[in-house]
């Protein structure tokens, strides 16, 4: 039994690490696994399983923080500036700064505090995830089609505060499970005339403090459910999510300029079809809800 739960913990860590920063919705995938697999096997017990998912999300958050550590150090004036001067007197070019990140975090931060409990209560279900996955996929396709009309897309260091706010506002839409934080913000960044790589960079840089705050708040609210005898599972899931997250982020940032968003949108649509067949066609949803 312990070996089986360890394997489940590793699988959850892998899923979290692969999907947290990809535009496919990690929350959506975790809800699907929870509803269509874990609830039927009573993994760790419901409360402890929820805190486990928070812990492994933190693993992915720390992976993102590590990948962009030099950017954070620079914005906090800890690291040495690495850009090249733009003229003979050593003037520095415009750079992404901490205020861009704060402006982008404001919409999701406010709405998250106001509606977090409501969202967890009413929207964390397989049908709502399916809606988020499908609608988000359409939005990503629209962004990709539009991007072909932009002659000179902007880099992440050319972003202005209005663009940062609008991208942050789209991050709030991703509070709907399945829509995907990165899917919505990257798509919005592309629609705001950024290239895919720059939109992804800004999305990930902004996401780390948002996710850290959200995960920290959830962990604080559910601290009583943390069980010390499950510490090994938490640690294993955290490390797995961190390692897989590192690989996934670097791979995604390498590929995004080449493949754009449509392949991820197609995956989401195919996933919705498969879920619909399994969940409704074979009565999996009814079986779970009847337990």
UniProtKB/TrEMBL annotation:
GO molecular function: undecaprenyl-diphosphatase activity
NCBIfam families, sorted: PRK00281.1-4, undec_PP_bacA
Gene: uppP
Protein name, entry field: Undecaprenyl-diphosphatase
Subcellular location: Cell membrane
Reactions mediated catalytically: di-trans,octa-cis-undecaprenyl diphosphate + H2O = di-trans,octa-cis-undecaprenyl phosphate + phosphate + H(+)
Homology family: Belongs to the UppP family.
GO-annotated biological processes: cell wall organization; peptidoglycan biosynthetic process; regulation of cell shape; response to antibiotic
Other comment: Bacitracin is thought to be involved in the inhibition of peptidoglycan synthesis by sequestering undecaprenyl diphosphate, thereby reducing the pool of lipid carrier available.
């Amino acid at each position: 039994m312990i070996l089986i739960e360890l394997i489940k913990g590793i699988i959850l860590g892998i899923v979290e690490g692969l999907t947290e920063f990809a535009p496919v919705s990690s929350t959506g995938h975790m809800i699907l696994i929870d509803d269509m697999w874990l609830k039927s096997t009573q993994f760790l017990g419901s409360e402890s399983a929820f805190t486990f998912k928070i812990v492994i999300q933190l693993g992915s958050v720390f992976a993102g923080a590590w990948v962009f550590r030099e950017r954070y150090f620079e914005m906090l004036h800890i690291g040495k500036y690495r850009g090249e001067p733009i003229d003979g007197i050593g003037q520095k070019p415009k750079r992404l700064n901490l205020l861009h990140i704060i402006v982008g975090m404001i919409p999701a931060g406010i709405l998250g505090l106001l509606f977090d409990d409501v969202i967890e209560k009413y929207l964390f279900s397989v049908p709502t995830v399916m809606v988020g996955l499908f609608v988000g996929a359409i939005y990503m396709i629209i962004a990709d089609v539009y991007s072909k009309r932009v002659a000179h897309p902007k880099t992440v260091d050319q972003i202005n505060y209005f663009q940062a706010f609008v991208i942050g506002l789209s991050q709030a839409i991703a509070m709907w499970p399945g829509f995907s934080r990165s899917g919505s913000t990257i798509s919005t960044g592309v629609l705001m005339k950024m290239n895919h790589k720059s939109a992804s960079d800004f999305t990930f840089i902004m996401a780390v403090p948002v996710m850290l705050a959200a995960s920290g708040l959830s962990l604080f609210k559910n601290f009583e459910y943390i069980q010390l005898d499950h510490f090994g599972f938490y640690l294993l899931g955290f490390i797995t999510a961190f390692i897989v997250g590192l690989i996934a982020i670097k791979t995604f940032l390498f590929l995004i300029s080449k493949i754009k968003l449509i392949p991820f949108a197609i995956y989401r649509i195919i996933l919705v079809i498969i879920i619909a067949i399994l969940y409704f066609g074979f009565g999996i949803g009814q079986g779970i809800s009847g337990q």
